Amino acid sequence: MNDIQQISVILVDDHPVVMEGLRSLLEKNEMLDIVGAFTTGKATLNFLENHEVNVILLDISLPDRNGTALCSEIKEKYPRVCILAISNHDEHSIITEMLRNGASGYLLKNASSKELTEGIQQAIEGELVFSDEVKKILAKGSSSAKPLPKLTRREKEVLKWVAEGMTTTSIAEKLIISPLTVETHRRNLMQKLKVNNTAALIRVAAKHELI
Amino acid sequence: MNDIQQISVILVDDHPVVMEGLRSLLEKNEMLDIVGAFTTGKATLNFLENHEVNVILLDISLPDRNGTALCSEIKEKYPRVCILAISNHDEHSIITEMLRNGASGYLLKNASSKELTEGIQQAIEGELVFSDEVKKILAKGSSSAKPLPKLTRREKEVLKWVAEGMTTTSIAEKLIISPLTVETHRRNLMQKLKVNNTAALIRVAAKHELI
DNA sequence: TTTTTTCTACTGGTTTTCTGGTATTTTTTG
DNA sequence: CAAAAAATACCAGAAAACCAGTAGAAAAAA
């Protein structure tokens, strides 16, 4: 069976239907050897400890951790593996975030099977691969440049409670810090996300799935 | 091939991968006969004009129209067909909306293949079917009762501009009405969505995809 | 054509957020 | 360990949002 050099692939996605679809599509290609399929980041990392693979098809939204973090974690430990993100998120910022974290490409889930199999080949050859949709997004987005800013742990926490409708003072009480500190965090949040009031802050945060 | 009575099924989803997954999973079951697969609402309606089917597996987010509307449209014309919603949206409100529009069940895309095939059988037998996840959501939601409230045209408009970060006065100027009126709309919005400030309003609105 | 809903507008007062600064103490990281 | 980043905290005034009502006109539905 190892005719030429088969490409070993693992799938990471928590949707059985998607998983089955990927497997079914990829199995048709003799070049590809699906050696594993996992639904969590943890299971994936466990597997990688004992097995070497060429390509990982990685869904961004997993139950136990977010895909971008998992991506950089994997790339740190196993720099040679190719990670192809497969996701529903069509946000420019999320795509570039993935690439910054070492992904070799980004495909939307509405990608065609051709884009998929060809993408894997290209990724192996060192190319950056994108599905057509993604290319459009990148082309559009590059003009307005929207690098998702990094929020600190505390900022994220404050943001979460703000989104819940809590006021500055009640958040301060909850976190046992001064309201003035909470204000500062809110100010920094607005600055980072380039908005000038809470409404826009929450909207942008929601768009970037920060809350 | 028509051993007993095969169930004719069509798939409606704009993600090739998901489509393939569904097909692959369902083909294993002898009872099911996949007679069509479409990526748009329009193509689906066209097909239905000339063919009778038992079950439609319908994705909620389609390129050309939203699934809930398509569902009620189909049920109006072909009341006997069973529509099973397959979606990523885990919002209580969207689920019940689908059911109100005539769907025979609601499965999340992370449903297992068993849930899928069994669901189709049950739907044919007249049962309402839900994947386990959905049951949980319905159980939780029914206690706190969250029927997505209807917003008026003006309210939606105000909401949109609020989410953009505009203040009451600037919205008033834009719509050429009194700021006091805008205030009233905002108040009604908050009341309807059961929140008590703008932050929560935008969060809930985003969650329900109102903005 | 009634009835209901939506859109409009007001009074008047309270609470919260926003702005534009500055600055010390922890953590984290190179 | 030194430098950078993050978390903490303060002042004070302006701007905006929020609350609790009421109510007439316009539009849509019955």
How does this model look, in words?
The structure is a homodimer of 211-residue chains. In chain A, 52% of the residues lie in helices and 14% in strands. With 211 residues, chain A is of the alpha/beta class. Chain A has two domains: 7-140, Response regulator (Rossmann fold, 3-Layer(aba) Sandwich), CATH 3.40.50.2300; 153-207, Arc Repressor Mutant, subunit A. Chain A is elongated. Chain A starts with 6 loop residues before the first strand and ends with a helix. The model of chain A has no long low-confidence stretch (mean pLDDT 86). The structure holds a DNA duplex (30 and 30 nucleotides).
Labels describing this entry:
homodimer, 211 residues, alpha/beta, Rossmann fold, Arc Repressor Mutant, subunit A, 2 domains, 6-stranded parallel beta sheet, 10 helices, DNA-binding
Walk me through the topology:
Two copies of one chain form a homodimer.
Chain A: E1 7-12, H1 16-27, E2 32-38, H2 41-50, E3 55-59, H3 67-77, E4 82-87, H4 92-100, E5 105-108, H5 113-124, E6 129-130, H6 132-144, H7 153-163, H8 168-175, H9 179-192, H10 198-207
Parallel strand pairs in A: 1-2, 1-3, 3-4, 4-5, 5-6
Helix pairs in contact in A: 3-4, 7-9, 8-9
Chain A binds a DNA duplex (30 and 30 nucleotides) through helix 7 and helix 9.
Quick recap of the structure?
The structure is a homodimer of 211-residue chains. With 211 residues, the first copy, chain A, is an alpha/beta fold.
* CATH fold description of the largest domain in chain A: Rossmann fold
First and last CA, distance of chain A: 47 Å
Largest sheet strand order of chain A: 2-1-3-4-5-6
Q: Strand fraction band of chain A? A: 5-15%
User: In the CATH classification, which architecture of the largest domain in chain A applies?
Assistant: 3-Layer(aba) Sandwich
Whole-number count of domains of chain A: 2
Using only C-alpha atoms, the radius of gyration of chain A works out to 20 Å
Shape descriptor of chain A reads: elongated
Q: Overall pLDDT of chain A, averaged?
A: 86
- The total beta strand count of chain A reads 6
Provide the structure class of chain A: alpha/beta
Portion of residues within helices of chain A: 40-55%
CATH superfamily of the largest domain in chain A: Response regulator
Number of helices of chain A: 10
Order of helices and strands of chain A: EHEHEHEHEHEHHHHH
Main sheet overview of chain A: 6 strands, parallel
